[in-house]
Protein 1
Amino acid sequence: MRVVRSFFRCLLCGALVAAVAGCATTRPWQREQLAQPSMKPDGDPEREALRSHMLGTREGAIGGFGHGGGGCGCN
Amino acid sequence: MRLQLAQPARLALAVAITFAMRDPVSAADEPWRLSTDTLVYSDSDNVVVVSPQVAVRRALDDDGGNASARVVVDVVSAASVDVVSQATNRFSEVRTEADLGLAKSFGSWLPSVSYRYSHEPDYHSTGLGAGLQHRFAGSDATASVSYDLSLDTVGYVGTGEGTFSEPLVSHAANFSLTQVIGPKALVRGVYTLSVQDGYLEKPYRFVPIFDRAGIAAAASDGVAINLSNFDRYRLPERITEEVPDTRIGHAFAVRGLRHVEAISGSIHADVQLFADSWGLTAETIEPGLTWSASQAILMAIYLRGYFQQAARFWRREYVVDDPDTVPRWRTLDRDLSDYFAATLGGRFEWQRGILSGYVDLSGAVTAYSEYLFLNGRLALIGQAGLRLDL
């Protein structure tokens, strides 16, 4: 039951994200702030790879912004 | 340790180098990046992990195309309750992982492939990945889809593969959409479907089983059963861990990022929900703040909260009427229990010419509410890296 409830919560969040897709186009001269280093949605890939692996051994969840499954026995 | 790359890894490396050596059409002025990082993890449960990493990346175009190679080594030394509760002394282990990646843009499309191999004395893993990213709506939106396959072999230290060798196959499909929602903000949504099929137990783990007399004896002694006394009250049988062979997980995550003029930086928040077929659910929230201290210095602070509700077959104590009727599913994996973890960290990044680097320090506290051997732990995590752009 908890799985079903969580799944529907995910669907709801997905609908919200889909709803903002297709917002008004940002003009090139409006992108100065979006181009700043602090606005990068992805961190440095090598730094994030190490951090993600560490979190993968500490947290039971799989996927999302974090770690994938597999690749580590972590015994 | 000498790293032995399998035949597919050598082929993938050759392809990656061939692409990397080609003149890029319009790559950045400094297309090569050499990286070195080290992560040090230490916690109050007697676990120390040092993970040095080296990587090289070659930009192939200005739209995210690149060829990359990465090697990381985990040096683990542990005498945690997981280990000592099985009457085992401290162990040390080295895990080595190598990753290769290749992405090349074709207009607004960015296909990518990746290969991973990791080895530790009792675990081998080979991973393959493929992805496709597409920019649209005037580059205000980016959609991506990726698939990763992991083929693992679980072994047992000190025995050959003929003695103990169990397969585990993992699939992960990722769908993500990033949308600019104005000149100052963007949002990203990610959904991950993960399927694991095979041996998901830990071969060293035996689950203590109690009968009602043992539980009553502990109660009459006025003690809670824990690491120091569980041997006194448990049944003598050593029952191996047993969990379902298949685990299907759904993760949905949203990241919001907004520029804040007053601090020349941004605020961000990640929210993530996870649920799987074992009944385990988890919620993660990670707000953070990043700001420019000067043109060359970036600072960040972040907080991460992780809340997990146990798998439906998790028990603090497995109590049976007789040893022949043990529960079909039983586990001692605290990562399947109820717990809460909070992490507070800060990062300092700097750049000077072609050299840049960072230092990231964080502290984490974990509280287990239903784990027989441990109520909580404190961890200190340090990570630092250097980048050379050529």
Protein 2
Amino acid sequence: MTIFKMYRLLGIVLTFAAAVYSGAANAKIGSCEDPIVFGTTISETGPFSTLTTNWRALTEAFANEVNRRGGVEVKACGKKLPLKFVIYDDQSNPSTAVRLYERLASVDGVDFFVGPDWTSIGMAVSSVAERQKIPAVMANVGARAVFERGMKYVWGNAHPSAPRWSEQYFDMLTKVNPRPKSILFITHDNPVTKELTELMSKRAEAAGLKVLGDERFPGDLKNFSAIILKVKAAKPDVIYISSFDNPSVPLIQQMRQQSVKAMDVHHAMLSGSLKKQVGEGVEGVTGEIAWYPAIGGTHADLWTRTLEASKVDLFDAIWSVGRLAAYDVMVQAIERAGELDREKVRQVLYKGTFKTPPGDITYDDTGFPNASAFTTQLQRGKIEFIWPPERATAKVIWPSPSWQ
Amino acid sequence: MSSLVLLAQVVSGGLVMGGLYAMVAMGLSLIYGVTRVLNFAHGTFVALAGISGSILFSSFGIHPVWSILLAAAAFFAFGFGFYNLLLKPVMKHDHFKMTIGTVLITIGAFMVVEDLASAAAGPVQRNILLPSTAIAATGGIVTSMQLYVLLGITAVTVALHAFLKHSWFGRAIRALTQDQFAATAYGVPSELIRGATFAVGTAMAGVSGVLYAMTLPVDLHTGFILTVKAFTVIAIGGIGNLTGTLVASILLGVTEALVAFYVSSEWAPAVSIVVLLAVLVLSPRTDFVTHR
């Protein structure tokens, strides 16, 4: 090899090394001179994509809105730093999500993780956060099993969190007239919804209701005839559907066709998407919603402007609350820590309480959140807040005339 | 509600499902009987037709009866083109290459159609929601929609039976199903008949898709499940045997309904797989080439 060739080879190697170094240097984790970078994935394709409409725009709008207000206050830097997101599509797939979070940590060099969503993906991604020692405030990861594994860098955001789901609804059931005496659960075979039914069965018994049964169905079931026949035979006063919105579309359609009767049909995840697909059949159904701009609260202005800019309606996309809360909590944690050191931010998040429009979110020592929700009812095609009465936009119509 | 009434309701629901399975399986049976192509995309074509019918109904107000006619014509043309452009060139090779080639082509079509349609129509499930009420004369056991769909299935089955039994084309199809070599020797234009049979089978998928969407919501993932059920029915009923296909479909539909009611809805989808395995293990006669 001639000297010229050796120098040329050395030049190539040095150029390549410089390129790699400059790529890594772009990230400059914890720098006061660069934007704070949140890394996230959104299920923009795959089975969960129906739940994430406009979330990329929502995420970018949140950063724009924070930056319009000057950025994120970092005391150690003596100034506010702009906020930036790196977003990928996890395709609703846990293994894809794991690969992308590894990339966010090692290639993109993000400061913190916000996301992902859904228990199956959150369970897989939490190990990346632990291994990389990057605090992750996940969104819409609500199964307790995710958090009871001794994790130190993972927090959840489910609105409402499973133990407080339907808290207001069951309070309402003890105060309506005529008072219901029995309840039957129809449960989508999913870790979150099964946990929900388990918790709500106990809550129902505590509210004096007799639990008549729990009918389970796989997420891809289209023919609900057998379940509906069992419901009709059991004649419950309240039918509680513990399911994500999409899998229960045929259930509600067929309940209407088969003229099912009850005092109330409650859907744990009543949403605009369900209403669009079922149409008039969903009239009178009660549900839960964590927050809506009309309710107001701390940081309501930030959230409302973000939603308006991204054209996201919270009733159409109920899971957006979990997303916004994850971003809001992480921003608050950084501001409270006063620096971008991941360990300091982790300490702030541990057993922390954070202000959000739906109310205070308090984490327990496992990172599991504690958030409640309001009870809603579809009245004349419009979503109304019916419980608790002091925050209600309309009175509950009881028993629901559409199910008589 | 007495247990007898409950049983009658379970069985009536199973009959409707069985009828729908028969519609799907008859098309697949015809295609395999004549062309020897195991069309893995058949159920996806059914789902595509259902979604198209639903969009025509909800966006343009087109009644499903018109959608059925439209689907029959459109899927006939699609099937004819699909066979002649993609499958026919592979048929010239030896048996092994032909089998592998056609399986790969139909699996590829299943994946491509599913992805394209999913991108165009969105990931939500769709159906054709016509007003439906429980019919009082039956004690509320049957809904008007179930009755319409059953009538539709019966009409299509009778028409197909008459077509196969009495038309020259039908006799040619049956001749090819029974003995391809002899049929060709007696002057049956086998290539044309194969293409046309594939087209008729695909048209059947189109018609059954619209009928399916009138009964239950459909999404593109439904397609592969329907293909598996159709293969089960064919294994039990026999290739080219319409009566056998109908009986096997109804048996499958009713068994699924009984399992869903008396055991659990979570176990009903497993019935077709268990039945398929049982038939293949216990009945040596059933080998996908039972000609009747």
